[in-house]
Amino acid sequence: MKWTALLIASILLLTIGSFAQPIQYSSGTAGGAPTPTTPQSPDSLGLQPPSAETSRAAPSIQERSQGLMMADQTAAYSAAPTAFKATATSPTYTKMVVPSGTYAPNNLYVSYAPQTVAACNLYANLPLWMQISRSGSIWFYEWYPNGMLDTQYAGFVSYPTWYKRWFFADVPGWHVLQYYCNGWSNYAYIYVYGTGPGYWVNPTPNPKPTPYPYPYPYYSGQVTTSYPGTGHTYYSFSTSIGS
């Protein structure tokens, strides 16, 4: 009986220890992309998943043919719903987390400026607003809940201004986003809810997206890269904005 109790206690300690392990974020890149500083985890920042945004935001037909779109500051700020504008200064939603010990002149917002922390349902889309301070090549980084890093070349911009991009919620859990364009941006944190009611997930035993998700960035001619760790395929592409 004593040995049984000790065995159960050991298993419990191992289980608790495994849950307490911090996320090991990858910093490995390929294709000449700058090496990022690994982000702080949502837990270490004390972030709690906010309520999922329930709007049916999705790329327009025109935006589906582009991976990066020119935008402006007015559009980024006016995208905030009236209910949010009253709490837009909340430190929870607008927490500006930048990589330590490096230059971060660019800004990244989720859904609307100045929001940097958001949540959505699985298979949803959220607009990303990028305030770029200088011209150059844009590299976009997304850390998945298991710590895997997906790096994409997002194109070349000829002059600094605001740009728009779309986030596609393909895996439940916390996603951390950042980009580089002659300097780093802040990190943005998005929590993806995997189950529950909503337009984006069919209420069936085997949920499927509604509508079926289109390949990112939505047009032919991509070079695909598969990541066996998640079973997902990502697309690299080239585009020039503002030239």
Query: In the CATH hierarchy, what is the class?
Result: Mainly Beta
Can you say what the CATH homologous superfamily is?
Answer: Macroglobulin (MG2) domain
The CATH topology corresponds to Immunoglobulin-like
CATH-scheme architecture: Sandwich
Q: Which residues sit in consecutive blocks of at least 5 with pLDDT less than 50?
A: 6-20, 85-89, 196-243
- Counting H and I runs of at least 4 residues, what is the number of helices? 4
Structural class: alpha+beta
Shape assignment: globular
Task: Give an overview in words.
The structure is a single chain. With 243 residues, the protein is α+β, with helices and mostly antiparallel strands. The chain has a single domain (25-241), classed as Macroglobulin (MG2) domain (Immunoglobulin-like), CATH 2.60.40. It contains 4 helices and 12 strands. The protein has helices spanning 2-20, 42-45, 73-78, 82-85; strands at 69-71, 107-110, 117-121, 125-131, 136-143, 149-157, 162-168, 173-180, 188-193, 223-227, 232-236, 240-241. It has a 6-stranded mixed beta sheet, with no helix packed on it. Strands 1-7-4-2 form a 4-stranded antiparallel beta sheet. It is globular and about 40 Å long. 31% of the residues are buried.
